[in-house]
Structure formats: structure tokens, C-alpha cells
């Protein structure tokens, strides 16, 4: 075992400079069955290959993917996200000449552009979601380019406002320290984060900001304040110079298009100058509900969410305009309502009127669970449902939205930092005839924020080409 470990480390160490060169020279990132190899160590590479045992007939090692990585450096690749694991597995099955195989598999990105046009992004609001969006945007800009965070708009609350906000970006009690360096230019109201210049703009009126004065043009603005949720309110942003489109990080009202990335993002048209990213719970459950409806048909169901408390609840008992939310969030389970079940139909119209829902807020700061209690058109077994969700998580076009786990020891804190919209807990699945109960974990902060960024990148034309292409979930 010791020699095997050392052999794996040796191959992984050979991979590190190749991964860096591909990224710098060709804007290519690589993964192993979806596990991205970005800012990794040799041990991270070995761990990513260990994961391959779940997706492949045998566990791959760095020695299996190293020859593929070496061959990629001579292919004149353009911007792409390339899965070394899937390529290695397919080549092992198919055989032949490796260079010819890779040229056929990666033809779409050979000789294409390595740089993509930059798109300005503005964050309006800088609370829990706003700061996570900033972290992800900074990381993604360094990874792919394209979507570039240019400014953050807030109301000034103190003389040292920018210092406090930079500190909140630097340190997070739930998600840990910022990966990199942050410095503040107080004189010019600028935060520098890993070389990214972020202009802090202080304003009270969303309609009267001249973003072009800061060199910001045709920007996508992400409103994460939740103050305005209808077309009339959010249209104020479009009155400001320099803003082209608006994304709301909450369920929209009226005729606004509610988008769950991976489900209906391709329905967005050029006329949709305002779109919403729905809620964390809607994002957490909609992908799994789509898969189940596509394969088994959902007659009706009830969604019960066990949700971490949020900032709109009181820390101790005090007046709150909402029912029950005035009671101490850290001391109580608080029964409340959720519109997430009904909101699913805005992304999946075929489920209109088939779902009800409630929520229980609990004394944890992050990570929630949705219990999907469903009546199906077909009878199912626990084994077949779990196998389906596992295959979707490993191989389908919903791989970024759905993850699957079958461990008897996991608890909510294990999912802090998950980039997936939801994680199916296979050991909790219950099936009895056409009655199914599915348990789905979701990081209601970070997982949701990643879904928002996927919409932003889609609007910005900054989503990388993923190769080999993933299988549509309905075809599994």
C-alpha cells in the first residue's frame, strides 16, 4: 500500500505543472469525473482519482490520466473544461492511437480561442449571498475569464464601511477564510481581491448610478438585496447608465422568468432583461424532481424543507412582522411557509398544481434538507431510484446540479461548501409501490450561489465547453 501511494504521488506531481501550463496557455481546466483540478496539490489529485471508483468499472490512478494530460499540451486547445477521467475510461474501452482518439473527441475546441470577451458584473447588495457571489466570481475569473466582478453597490453605514465589508469578505464563520489576499484602498473606495479591482459604490437609489463613470458598460447586475422582486422595482436598475441585464437572487413575482440553471436556463431570450434565480430550495429540489418526473411520472407530492435559520429571523425573541419568525432562531424549530414547491412549476410547468410545501427553520447556520414525499405513476424500488440518481450525478448533464451520497455517517455540516444544487442521500430513500420519499441535502448559501453564477455566466457567454459531452438525464 505504501509503494502504491508513493507511485500515485509521483504521477500526480508530474501532472501539476502540466495542469498549470494548460490553464495559463490555453485557458483549459481539467477534471476527473467532474472533480476539478484547480489550485490543487498532489494529494488533491490522488483523492480526485479515488472518486473515479464510483463512476468507472475500476478506480483510475494518476498514472492512467497522465498520458492524456501530456498529449493535451500539444493539441492547440482553446478554452474548455476537459474531463480526464471520462477520456481515460473511454480510451481504455475503445483502444487505438491516443493522439487520434483525443483529436476526434476534442475536435470542437482544437484551434479555437483561448480568451473570451470580458463581461462586467455588478453586485447590488453585499450580505450573505452577495459575499459568496463575490468569492465565486473572483475564483471563476481566475479560472476561465469572461465574467468579471467590477463593482459592489451598498448603502454606507459607517465611516469605516469599506474596511468592515472587506473584513466580512476575508473571514466567514461558516465558509472559512477567503482563498487569497484582500487589500483596501480607502481613498478610492476600492477592494483588491487576488488582483481583481472591485469598486465600492455607495448609493441609495438604484436608478441614478452612472456606472460608466467607473468604466463599467453593458453590465449584468445581480440584485441580492431582495428589496425589489417584481419587474417595476427591478427595472430601476436598467435606468442607470451601464446596466444591460438584471439577475435577482430570489423568487420573482409577476411575469418575471424564474430560472433554475440546468433546467430551463436555455429558455432565456434576448428580451429577458430581468431574470430571477428562484430560491435556494427551488434550486435544491427542481433537478431531482425533473429526473423523477421524466423517468417515473409524478402524480402529486409534498415537499417539507428542514431549513437553516436565516438573517431575517430574530436572534432572540422580539417583534417580527412575519408569523413565528420573531422567536429566537438559535433556540427553536420554527414552522413557516415556503413557496418553493409551487415555484418549481415556473421552471417545470408540467408539475403545475402537483406539489405542496412547508418549511421548518432549525438552529443551524447553513445547509438544509428537503424531504420529497411523492406519489408516482409507476411502482419503483429503492434500489432502482438510487441507481438512477447515482448515474445522473456521475454522468448526466445535471451533474453540477445533482450529487449522490450513500454514507451512514454524513450530517449537515459535511455539505457546507457543496457546489451542487442538491445532494441525494441514498441511504434515506424509501420506496413502497408507487410511493417514494427522497431526501435531498443542499447548501442553501454556497450551492445556491453557484447556481446563480451559472446563470450569470450563461448570460455573459462565459460558460466553458465541457468535453466529453454529458448525457441528457432523461436518456439514462
From TrEMBL:
Q: Which UniProt keywords apply?
A: Oxidoreductase
What residue ranges are annotated as transmembrane? Answer: none
Ranges of residues in domain Glyceraldehyde 3-phosphate dehydrogenase NAD(P) binding? 119-280
Keyword Oxidoreductase tagged:
yes
Record-linked SMART domains: Gp_dh_N
Does Protein biosynthesis count among this protein's keywords?
no
Task: Kindly list any coiled-coil regions of this protein.
Answer: none
What Pfam families does the record point to? Gp_dh_C (PF02800), Gp_dh_N (PF00044)
Select a single GO molecular function from the record's annotations and give it: NAD binding
Family membership noted in the UniProt record: Belongs to the glyceraldehyde-3-phosphate dehydrogenase family.
Q: What is this protein called?
A: Glyceraldehyde-3-phosphate dehydrogenase
